[in-house]
Each structure stands twice: as C-alpha cells, then as structure tokens.
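Cast an eye over my tokenised protein here and flag anything odd:

===
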Amino acid sequence: MIRLRCPNPECRKPLGVKDQLAGKRVSCPSCKKPLVIPMPKAAVPTPGIPQPGIPVKPPAVKPPTPPKKPTRPLANVDDLAAAALSDAPAKPVVVETPKTIDFTCPFCDEELHLAAALAGTQSPCPECRRIIKIPELKVEKPKDWREVGPGNAADYLRRQGDVLEGVQGDVHSKASTRALVEAGAIEEAPVPPVGIRGWARRLAWATSAVLVLAVVVWGISQARLSSVRSRAIAAVLARLKQPDNKLPPLVRAELLQGCALLELDQGHAAQALEYFRAARGNALDESANLRVDQDLFLKELALQQVMLGGSELEVRQKRKFDWQPVAFQEMRDTVERIQSIEVQLWAARELGARLLTLDKRPLAMLLAQGSRDAAQVPAIKAVQFALLFGPNDKLGNDLAGEMFKAPTKGKPADPLTRLAYAEGYARRGQMDDALEMVSARGLPKDRLEAALAVLAVSADDKILDEALKAASEEKKSLNPWFVLQLARHAARAGKADKVQPMLGGLPKEFRTRAEFELMQAKWQREKSVVPPTSLDALPPDDSKTPRMLAFYALIVHNARLGQPATIPETDGAVLEPLVSLGNLVGTLPAPK
C-alpha cells in the first residue's frame, strides 16, 4: 500500500493506493486534480546489474521479429486507474453457464457428468443405480469489490464511522469495510486484546446488573408480602367484628398482638400501636378464672411493646415512636395491669434486661416499680438495685451502695440482700458470685426466689440445679408462680423430668399452663414440625382458651420451620383466623 497526500495545496487529501498503480497518472478522488503515484520506498533492482543472492542469467538470444499483426488500440492507462478509484458500478460480466455437473457418486466413487438441468434433484447413479442427490449448479463469477458485502455501505459507514483512508473519501461511499477487506482493497484492522482492565470493567458491569436485578426482585417480593399481610389482617379484623364471633377474649388479644407485630415489621408504627392497645383491652376482658393466662399474656405483651421505641431516624420516618412518652407509657400501662406481684417482678426483670441493652436504664428503673409501693413489696427495691448495680459504672454503684450494703463473706445474708446481689452479679455476668449468693445458707424458699431472679436475667445450668435443689428441700407448699417459672426454665434446659413431679400439687389453672410450657419448650428444643394431635397431651379443661392459645402457638412454631398449616375440618370456621394469621406471624424473626 502506497500512502501519499494530494499535491494540490487546496486539497492535501491523504490517499492510500495499491502498489500496482506506482508511476501511474490518476485523478484525486477529492479535488479531481491529476497526480502521479510515486514509486514504493523499497529499492527497485536495475536490470543488468548483479544483486547479492540473485544469480545473473546470460542474455537471451532474441528470435527474429515476426511480422506485426493488426491489433486493437490499447486502452488508456490513466482511464483504467481512474476507473479503479471510481465509485461507478462495474460493467456487467457475461458468464457462460456450464452444461454439465461434475461430481463423484458418494456410494461408488464414480466420476459422474450429468446434465445441468438435473441440478438440485434426486436421480439414480448411472453406475451403481442408487438414488443420489445432484448438487446445485455452481457458476463461478469474478468478484467485484463493489458488490461484496450485504446492505448499503453508506449506511454502514455512517453507523460505524469507518471511512476508507483517501480512496473512499467520506461516508457517501457505497462499499462496506467488510466488502473492501474481502476484495483485498484494504487490510483488516487487528482486534485489540481485552486486557485486565477490560475484564474488570465487564465484571463490574455484570455485578451491577446482578445487584439491580436482586433489588428489583426483592422489591417485588416485599410488595407481594405486604399485600398478603394486609389482606390477612383485614380478614381477621372483619372476623373479630362479627356478632357471632366465638373467640375468647385472650385469643382475640393474641390475634390483635399478631396484627401489631406484622404492622410493626412493615414500619407502620401508628397502626401497630392501635392493635397493641386493642390487644391489651381484650385481655382485660378475660374472666377471673383465667388470671394466670391473662397475667402471662400481659407480660409477653409488654416485652413486645419494647419494639415501639426507636432511634431519631426511625421516629422521623414514622417507623417507631419516641421512648418517652409513647413507648414507655404503653409498657407501663401494660405492666401496671398485671395483678400478680410475682409476674410483675418477672416482667420487670425481663424488661430490664432488654432496656439495659438499649441503654435505657432510667426507664427500666421506673418500670420496675410499676403500680406497687416498694415499702409494701420489698422485692421491687431488690430489682431496682440490680438495675443500678448491673452496668458496673460509678454512678450506679454509688446509688446501689446506698440501697444495700455488700454482704460479708462467710456470714448469711438477709433474704432481700441475697435477692438483690444475686440478680446484680448476674447482670454483671459474674455468675460465680451470683451462684455463691444463691447457695448461701438460708431458707429453701429464699434460695429458690434468688435463683429464679438470676434465671430471669441469664440462663445457667448451675443456678438451675441450685433452684431445683431448693425446691425439693422446701417442705411446705411452694408458691405456684415459682413452680411455673421453674418449669419453664427447666423445660428449656432439657430437664423437664426433674420438675414434672412438682406439677401434681399445683392448682388446675397453673398445672395446665405448666404442661403447656413444658410442651412448648420441647418444640423449641427439638426444632421439628409438630402435629396438632400433640395437643391432646394437655390436661382436660372446660375452657377453650388454653387449648386455642396452644393451637395458635403450634401454628406459629411450624410456620417458623417453613411448614404453614391448613385450616382443619373440625371447627374450621372458628380456627380459620388463627391459622391464617399464625402462618404469617411465623415468618417474622423469632423473639430472642
């Protein structure tokens, strides 16, 4: 390829032509001025002069010149060169069509020469008589670079910006780059390698695409889940408003609490607050003979209401409420409605543990007091001491020291001091010191109460063994609330067999609840799907409330394991809201 520029000062167009046109006189495709194609830069050997590595042939003897025959006039070389660089279409070339098709039989390898009219048909081989397919007739036509390549070249060049240097001139050419490469007019540009940076860019684009797709899929799934939850909540509320609704008050309260948890998970704080209040109101409508289940439900409700309080950002987004007055006031209203002092202290200890992790110690102190007077219930003072003593900071230690003096080692401590320091050491994580306070000399009931205070804060096998030991040593009848708490802790630790003999002397309501606590702890420990028939092990009860609450807990448990329940045939109309809502509540994170 010879590269040059047009000598016309007004043009100076860069050109590229083939070596065959060296020394020829042609016209510039841009300005149409005549120019002479220079010789290539490589040295041209001169005839008659010896060159290194090339043998010199002796001069050949010229034969006598024959008489000249009349010939046609030679074509103008300049016109041929201009035609080679011109965009005008080539003159049609007449190609003679072959009269026969020459090929080899695929069966007998015989060379065959059949008439062209049989092209593309099936016919028997003249030699082996087998049916063969006659090939299509191929007409060899000389290639013209103007016709090679599909489509309009001008449109291709406008899209690609690939202009032939010099010869083609601009985007109005009619030949594509691919056609020129196939015709040998230009050389195909090499494809540059991708390289590390190229692969890194491709990986970044692919990763971005996957992330965008994941976000879209997650958004669609969340929208569908929100729609399903909204329909389920609406169906439950419609069912609760029906006049013929046969669900007991505590069961209605459990369903309303489930609605509140679903709304809170979606960031609907105002709606969740409304359902929490409705749940508390329904629980208070329960009859007096179910006071055990009522108090325990209110304790669990207060623990769930901790989730109403949030950070400043969550409050601005209306996903949560301020801790004061909304979240704290709701928890306090719930705790104050617990009638049993034992359950109120139990709730104060568990609420205190959660609020301390959220750095809300003043709220935990106020909740510990509840509606009771510390002078009438000294154990409240012990809980408040533990909340001050537990974080182990200077202010808390100073205030705690004013409430109770540290016991002297080797000397028995009074029951209240034992209770305060046992729980306080447990909140500090000093379980050996807590065990020393629990096991110190004293009455079995005092040791049992101190052990239960520690277990409400932190599960510990040694503390549990000491509690079981103190309960077995107590000669008088045990407080049924203490037995119920001990049954829950023992069942969760896999020691239900050690507390089972103590359940026989409990009142009927306490025994039914204790059996359910043992059953529910077994479900959580085994982590397997539970059939509804397992509820037959519960003691018979005239009230439907305990069994329906157990059925709802079973639905939630199985749903957490990915096994949603179906509506049973028996009492399906009554149990339908428990099944539909329990399946959704089971998809929420399990409480810690």
Residues 161-174 have pLDDT under 50 and may be disordered. The beta strands are 2-5, 14-17, 25-27, 34-36, 100-104, 111-115, 122-124, 131-133.
